[in-house]
Amino acid sequence: MAREREGTGPRYLSQAISGAFRDATEGALLNRIIAGPIPKHLAIIMDGNRRFAADHGLLIEEGHLRGKDTLEELLNWCLEVGIRVLTVYALSTENLARPKEELATLMALFRDSFHEIAVDERVHRHHIRVRAIGDLAVLPEDVRTAIREAEKATETYTEYLYNIAIAYGGREEIVEAIRGLARDVAAGRLAPEAIDSDTVSRRLYTADLPDPDLVFRTSGEERISNFLLWQTAYSELYFADVMWPGLTKLDFLRAIRSFQTRQRRFGA
Question: Where do the domains of the chain lie, and which CATH numbers do they carry?
Answer without folding.
Answer: 36-168+212-260 (3.40.1180.10)
